Amino acid sequence: MSKKNKTTKDYMGQEFVITREFAAPRELVFEAWTDPKHVAQWWGPRGFTNPVCQWNAVKGQAIHVVMRAPDGTDYPMGGEFREIVAPERLVMSCGALNEKAEMLFEFVHVVTFAERGSKTLVTVNSRVTKITAEANKYIGGFEAGMTQSLVRLGEMLDRAGAEALSSTASEREIVISRVFAASRELVWDAMTDPKQVVKWWGPRGFTTTIEEMNVRPGGVWNHVMHGPDGTEYPGQSIFTEVVKPERIVFTHGGGKKGGPSIQFVMAWTFDAVEADKTRLTVRQVYASAKDRDMIVREFGAVEGGKQTLARLGEHLATGLGK
To answer: Which residue from 162, 128, 156, 169 is spatially nearest to 15, judged by alpha carbons?
Structure first.
């Protein structure tokens, strides 16, 4: 008994700080933390599921999650939201419940979301604020469990890509599709070889300088588009999914030089229509319908995208820049 009391005393007030960087815009990562449909996909250690996930991210609202282990054991959890500053910060209390729905322990989690270009740095600061003697086995594994949860969150964000995290994704999307008279492998090469990309990337009248283009998960694509009037549009993309010759997903941040950064997730999908024809679908997903509408209005994104794919078609017809 004295050993349990000593352990309890040691854990009271202890803090854990866990950080992880995600290759996704801050708004999307924040949404993944606040929409119960998404939280249920990644919360908990690897192998756990969440058949119950009541997670209404509003100050004062209760949290109730039932985590189910791979062996079928249920671990109920309760708490409440204490502060929500979208998309910057979440404060919430969480703790395991016993069979009488009594709190075995309580953490207060302060979760911050910091922009890092087209990526997001998440910091989870967790402090033990309540504890009972039975809590030792749970708190001892907390750091490993939360780390695994964040790994699962990263995997979910990568899978989601440009298909978006929201049920209203269509309002935040720009989708352009075109069929090319070329095999899927040739279209893939034209879109991943920087020597070819510079020959067609951008609307008519634009040219492009590529500083780096490393098409692999985690690889970087730095480029500058030069408009006909001399305006420069620098951009940086981070590739999150590369499945040759089927699909490429990346996050992008950029805009007019000197102006605010525009962030979105883009996916290219390559579908073989026939042996010598390929349907390319380009999907951009923005953090909000407002952002999407601004890009269409201010930068002519839809027409610019169509012109870019038209230039790609012309490039493919010339024999791939040979």
So the answer is: 128
